[in-house]
Amino acid sequence: MNLFEQAQKIFLCQNPDEKIALTLDCANLFEQNKLSWNEGLPIIDYLDPGKEPQPFIVAPKDLKSYPFKKLYGKANAIHALAHIELTAVNLAWDSVYRFRGLPKDYYSDWVQCAKEEATHFKLLCESLKILGFNYGDFKVHGELWAMARTTRHSLLERMGVVHRILEARALDAIPMTSQRFSDIGDRKMVDTLNIIGNEEIGHISSSTRWFKHQCDLQQVNSDQTFIQLVNKFLANPPKGPFNREARLASGFSEYELNELDRMDREFKPKPR
């Protein structure tokens, strides 16, 4: 059995529950050294993962907001998190399938990431069902996957932009989100977010490792290259405050964090 064939199958799977089950099965096979990874199917330049008709994907400005302390607001917040986690599953398998000829540790990192993101999705869907909702019941935006499309031909850009810029926002947001659920007495969601927050540090650490690996191969400075990517791909710099402790644990350098702080301080929104 071949890792890349399995990654393709999972990536194109439309049903979320089946995608999660296949992810966990594939991760177990890989951990048991039952999948080859040195060669495989020719790469097809897929733009999008398999997806059922729902949830509907809309522009961020078209998402409806609900009061967080009300049932719909709480469920919508959990649903948005679940969508991010399912997108992260697809991202991990796309990074396995698309980028070839790398050390086995690279594939081990992203298979492990897919497995953990799949578990996060399951935990969030359990919380949704307790409230009487299912994944697909709310609209979502597709900004994270849109950037995955943009960076699909460059491992350096995929690691640097999708993971170290966009996904790393979870390191800043999860503690605040956890506090909101704590304030309304939802201990299950607090526990789930603690799991997600701790494991996201590992995911961003993996992206840092392979970002720096590519920088070394291209003989460029990783600190300066990261800031160049922020300026190249984002209309506005990431917004602080930044969780320095978690970001340092994920491999961010003091230089990178200081530059992010500076860009956040100096950013002036353009008048409408």
Written overview of the protein:
This protein is an all-alpha fold and 272 residues long. The chain has eleven helices and two strands, in the order H-H-E-H-H-E-H-H-H-H-H-H-H. The protein has helices at 3-12, 16-31, 71-98, 104-130, 143-150, 155-167, 169-183, 187-218, 222-233, 244-249, 254-266; strands at residues 57-58, 140-141. A two-stranded parallel sheet has the order 1-2. The longest helix has 32 residues, at 187-218. It is globular, with a radius of gyration of 18 Å.
Helix content: 55-70%
Unreliable stretches covering 5 or more consecutive residues: none
**What Rg, in angstroms, do the CA atoms define?**
18 Å
Average predicted local confidence, pLDDT = 95
Biggest pleated-sheet summary: 2 strands, parallel
Write down the secondary-structure element order.
HHEHHEHHHHHHH
> Which class do the helix and strand fractions yield?
mainly alpha
Shape: globular
What is the compact description of this entry?
By secondary structure, this protein is mainly alpha-helical. The protein has helices spanning 3-12, 16-31, 71-98, 104-130, 143-150, 155-167, 169-183, 187-218, 222-233, 244-249, 254-266; strands spanning 57-58, 140-141.
Summary tags:
two-stranded parallel ribbon, 66% helix, 1% strand, globular, single chain, 11 helices, 272 residues, mainly alpha
